[in-house]
């Protein structure tokens, strides 16, 4: 028997008022798979990710994630279960959202201390190890304002990892960065992928998608218009809309 998918989304529909943003999304992400989501601005990529950790509630459809039913046709997990689920689903945004008044290390340890009940010594050991992993061991006592964008985003990744998530969601994690800082963040994400993290990544970094993605999903107008392995999507897409989109970003 194959393991159940880590994320299974079925017929997801989401509207904001009369604006139908997701129009029946079906998507599965298996354990240790990396799914890259691409598509034009406004196609619903962020909304889809936000539905996967309960930041948005879809009116219709089902999301099973990390072995739990997060959304069931408008019904949501109870608050307590939702909070626990959110610790298992790490999210990294375009804007890093670090706590500006806390040191780098404190940004990473605050989650395990407040949400996982971890003690100071243990959380600091974990935080130092994660900062080393993202290449920022020497920045642990620095304040966020003194860091470059690429360093801030690597702290944000370490902070998400401190919850020991089973799934990581990335929403355009390098879009706000100067071009020369993109590589250092992608490198950390590639490391996570190599270690077997299950990941759903909205990005237009095609080098990352080609190297790391098991599946590339193309969204347009609230629908998945095609999905496949990177070679096929980038070299030989079925849909004219995919071709046009790729021409526009490459
Ligand atoms: P993408 O990430 O692909 O650019 P989004 O999911 O951010 O797309 O947005 C899809 C559509 O949903 C857009 O029309 C956007 O204006 C709308 N939308 C997103 N979030 C909200 C919100 N919180 N309230 C109202 N409309 C929203
Ligand atoms: Mg977006």
UniProtKB/TrEMBL annotation:
Keywords: Amino-acid transport, ATP-binding, Cell membrane, Membrane, Nucleotide-binding, Transport. It holds the Pfam family ABC_tran. InterPro entries: AAA+_ATPase (IPR003593), ABC_ATPase_HisP-typ (IPR030679), ABC_transporter-like_ATP-bd (IPR003439), ABC_transporter-like_CS (IPR017871), MetN_ABC_transporter-like (IPR050086), P-loop_NTPase (IPR027417). Residues 7-246 form the ABC transporter domain. It is a peripheral membrane protein. It is found in: Cell membrane. The keyword ATP-binding applies. GO terms for molecular function: ABC-type amino acid transporter activity; ATP binding; ATP hydrolysis activity. GO terms for cellular component: plasma membrane. SUPFAM superfamilies: P-loop containing nucleoside triphosphate hydrolases. Its main location: membrane. It comes from the Bacteria. Belongs to the ABC transporter superfamily. PANTHER family: AMINO ACID IMPORT ATP-BINDING PROTEIN, GLUTAMATE_ASPARTATE IMPORT ATP-BINDING PROTEIN GLTL. This is Amino acid ABC transporter ATP-binding protein (PAAT family). It comes from Paralcaligenes ureilyticus.
